[in-house]
Design brief:
The complex is a heterodimer. By secondary structure, chain A is an alpha+beta fold. Helix content of chain A is 12%, strand content 25%. Helices cover 28% and strands 27% of the residues of chain B. Classes of the chains: A alpha+beta, B alpha+beta.
Chain lengths: 93, 750
């Protein structure tokens, strides 16, 4: 199963766990597993099927262009990194 | 370190575009002259912050030479949405608002309206006839001022996102994020030495020589054709399509040769405006910015306020680090503070870290990427604090860095864990370099003092999609079609990677950078990704060629299996070189066309360090660079001359950033030095020859081990120079630029 590195500010949702293992062959599946296991993460990573605009996906330390659609191997680690750019306007919130 | 041997990679063949470039035949954006071309001019805001009360275009429209006038009202009204147009997610409304202001202007130089006329002079005259009534508003010019309670708000609808959660607080802070690893307070409690300092850096511009320029033709068949100077033709295509609500298939963008970009030609400024003017006038329209427009109306890199605190044990082990990074985004959010957070402590394995980042809007031009965006400001702070720690602990500054250097497996505060990297190798190369122990020499006069400084920096680099097509010609040459704007010789580096596979020489390749209709999607020439990603696509396309050529040879020789090595196809007694087989391909099949389209992953990241000797005139505060050495991990240098060129270019830009360059702003938000006479960039007379040392720690995922080299080299120079000034004068520098008044003030205070 892939590992997920939980950002420090979200660790209250995982009972303080820094690294958790959840099933999934894509980042989207991994996030779904995370949300099932740790319901407090719902809406903190993905909203309306989209990664939150302030986040980017890292796989083994490298930013993924495909984001949620990226494949994840059983030995790989998923990270939620701070996205480049971002920002919100009222029209979008 | 790299040990593989190649027949072509690592050599220095002449660049394919060299003759055209040195004879003036290469065609840049402004060289394009379509029949009936009109000239565009843009009216810009004289105020840093103002409400637009009214725009009256009647007098302009009635001028006999006027062919079209456009304002923001001419853009189609489409719902706002998040788009990624080359450098991360951004709301479409921000991009549109920056192109032509609607309701408010947010910086002096903000585009308000545009005209097309029969000559550039007439266009300028007509633009001046547009009557805009402004209601000036108070402005804010620095991050701390914009974050203060009661500061004038740029965007009434901007709500701060706090730790990833939207808030209801109207603010100039678009985003506040925090990265935490370990327990910083516990770490600092264990430290024997703690240094905490504050730093400020001024807004600086990339300073590319060629201004932004674009020609647009809204053709009679409904297709929009654009020729422009850009780092990403597909970014221009997608941005124009978004702005004008067109399908991408209706827009074709041809990238012309480019006279520099350094990140500043990733954003789009004039292309959609030229397109609207062409649509209205029915003729091609060219817009070329003046230098003043480039400085006032395109994106510089953020000024910043930074606080860094680092704690160390007596033996030099770094135990805790904190950073507060408040970066000026300019008029719209997107200050590149996230990469700053990624890079601020990336060179070091520190168990306890807390990094706070603030993306702050101010009344300056909307910032754009600039060579390792965000990282140089951050390294200026970290690397000078580390120098102070080394001094306090009486440790050699490189030994302190080596003791704590990041390596494979080191986790950064953002959560990413390094794969194989070359931080240690770069530091070891710096330490062993003759420059590091060479005598400084005697000062040139009684008021001069000399010193040496070092610093190291990191940039993570990017992957992203790239495409490549190879056409095998009957004479054995190969046409290489790609979509990456060639800024630093990438045509040749990319061609060399394909030629290496095919057993050919660089001169056998015919590389072309083509328009968006002719090649598959290719990401920007940015993020130090072009040689890494498009070169990888060329490698894969060459593998496709080999596969097809083997099939042709098998048919020709009536055998089942064909081998290919060292440029020769063979099967039993049969042998044909690549060129010999290319001549006979037509006997047994269709022409050979190799293709590849990849989403390159694992760019690897690059570390670079600087050793610099300075002489400071303590009477005037002038700092002269005596000697400068840049050391960088290239993974594998495909064409060492181009790697060295990037290292030298980045170093010189870093020297300019360190010593001279700044947006000198009036309290009302007017840039007072909007020309290259007053915006002081280094020339060949200001810098010595930049010595280079290429380190090669191969990137394990790339077929040739390549890491991008375009950016990491600018990160360390300002910090290294600050440390050298301290070594010379005993004074710590905490503001960029370290120009003579700033150095003199520091000397008088310390």
């Amino acid at each position: 199963m892939p590992s997920v590195y939980i950002p420090a500010l979200l660790r209250s949702a995982t009972g303080g766990q820094e690294l958790v293992k959840v099933p999934g062959a894509t980042v989207r599946e991994v996030v779904a597993s995370l949300e099932r296991e740790f319901p407090a993460l719902v809406g903190r990573l993905v909203k309306d099927g989209r990664l939150l605009p302030n986040l980017a996906i890292g796989i083994d330390g490298e930013v993924s262009f495909l984001g949620l659609a990226e494949d994840v191997g059983p030995e790989q680690e998923v990270q939620f990194l701070t996205a480049i750019k971002g920002g919100r306007s009222e029209a979008l919130s | 370190m790299s040990t593989t041997t190649y027949h072509l990679i690592g050599t220095r063949p002449p660049r394919h575009d060299g003759a055209d470039k040195v004879t003036g035949r290469a065609l840049y954006g402004a060289d394009l002259k379509l029949a009936g071309t009109l000239h565009g001019a843009i009216l810009r805001s004289p105020h840093a912050h103002a409400r637009i009360v009214s725009i009256d275009t009647k007098a302009a429209s009635q001028h006999p030479a006027c062919r079209a006038v456009v304002t923001a009202e001419d853009f189609p009204e489409t719902p706002d949405r998040i788009v990624d147009l080359g450098e991360g997610d951004t709301p479409l409304s921000y991009i549109r608002g920056n192109m032509l202001a609607r309701r408010k202007t947010l910086y002096q130089g903000h585009a308000v309206a545009a005209v097309a006329a029969t000559s550039p002079q007439a266009a300028a005259e007509i633009a001046a006839l547009i009557q805009v009534v402004y209601e000036p508003l108070p402005c804010v010019l620095t991050a701390p001022a914009a974050m203060a309670k009661g500061a004038p708000l740029l965007h009434g609808d901007l709500r701060c996102t706090e730790f990833g959660q939207p808030t209801t607080e109207a603010s100039n802070v678009a985003d506040h994020f925090r990265q935490v690893m370990g327990d910083s307070e516990k770490g600092f409690a264990e430290a024997d030495v703690i240094v905490e300092r504050e730093f400020t850096t001024s807004t600086v511009h990339q300073g590319y020589i060629e201004p932004h320029t674009a020609t647009a033709l809204w053709n009679n068949d409904g297709r929009l054709l654009i020729w422009c100077s850009t780092q990403g033709s597909f970014v221009v295509r997608d941005t124009v399509a978004c702005m004008l609500d067109l399908p991408v298939s209706r827009v074709r963008v041809t990238p012309m040769e480019i006279g520099g970009g350094f990140g500043g030609k990733v954003p789009v400024y004039v292309e959609p405006v030229a397109a609207l003017l062409s649509k209205k006038s029915g003729q091609p329209v060219k817009i070329t910015m003046t230098r003043r427009e480039v400085l006032e109306g395109s994106g510089p890199t953020p000024g910043s306020f930074i606080r860094v605190k680092i704690g160390a044990k007596q033996d030099g082990t770094l135990v805790a680090a904190q950073a507060y990074l408040a970066y000026e985004a300019g008029a719209y959010p997107g200050a590149m503070v996230a990469p700053a957070a990624t890079c601020v402590f990336a060179a070091y394995d520190i168990a306890n870290q807390t990094i706070d980042g603030y993306d702050v809007v101010v009344n300056k031009p909307s910032t754009a990427p600039y060579r390792a965006p965000g990282a140089t400001n951050a390294a200026f702070a970290t690397e000078t604090v580390l120098d102070e720690i080394a001094e306090k602990l009486k440790l050699d500054p490189l030994a302190l860095r080596l003791k704590n250097a990041s390596k494979e497996g080191t986790r950064r505060a953002d959560g990413a864990k390094f794969r194989r990297i070359g931080c240690v190798e770069v530091l070891e190369t710096m330490k062993a370099h003759p420059h590091y122990t060479a005598p400084l020499g005697e000062p040139s006069h009684a008021e001069a003092k000399r010193g040496r400084g070092v610093a190291v920096g990191f940039w993570m680099n990017a992957g992203l999609p790239s495409s490549c097509t190879l056409n095998v010609h009957a004479d054995g040459s190969v046409g290489l079609i790609e979509g990456s704007t060639d800024i630093g010789g990438s045509r040749t580096s990319i061609a060399m990677m394909a030629a290496e596979v095919l057993g050919l020489q660089a001169d056998d390749m015919r590389p072309s950078v083509v328009d968006t209709d002719t090649i598959g999607y290719t990401g920007v020439t940015g993020g130090s990704r072009t040689t890494f990603a498009t070169g990888w696509a060329a490698y894969e396309a060459a593998q496709d060629v080999v596969k097809q050529m083997k099939e042709r040879a098998a048919k020709l020789w009536k055998v089942d299996e064909v081998h290919f090595a060292d440029g020769v196809f063979s099967a039993g007694e049969h042998r044909l070189s690549f060129k010999e087989l290319a001549a006979r391909v037509g006997e047994v099949g269709a022409p050979v066309v190799g293709r590849a389209s990849i989403n390159a992953k694992g760019p690897g990241g690059s570390f670079a360090g600087a050793i610099v000797d300075v002489e400071v005139d303590v009477e005037t505060g002038k700092t002269s660079i005596l000697r400068f050495t840049c050391v960088q991990d290239a993974g594998k240098a495909i064409h060492p001359s181009y790697v060295e060129g990037q290292m030298q270019g980045g170093s010189v830009q870093g020297i300019g950033w360190a010593l001279n360059e700044e947006y000198f702003m009036s309290p009302e938000g007017r840039m007072m030095n909007a020309s290259f006479l007053d915006y002081r960039m280094p020339t060949a007379l200001d810098v010595p020859m930049i010595d280079t040392a290429i380190v090669e720690v191969p990137n394990p995922v790339h077929p040739y081990g390549v890491r991008g080299v375009g950016e990491a080299n600018i990160v360390s120079p300002p910090a290294a120079i600050a440390n050298a000034i301290h070594a010379a004068t005993g004074c710590r520098m905490r503001h960029l630029p370290m120009n003579p008044p700033s150095v003199l003030a520091a000397i008088q205070q310390c």
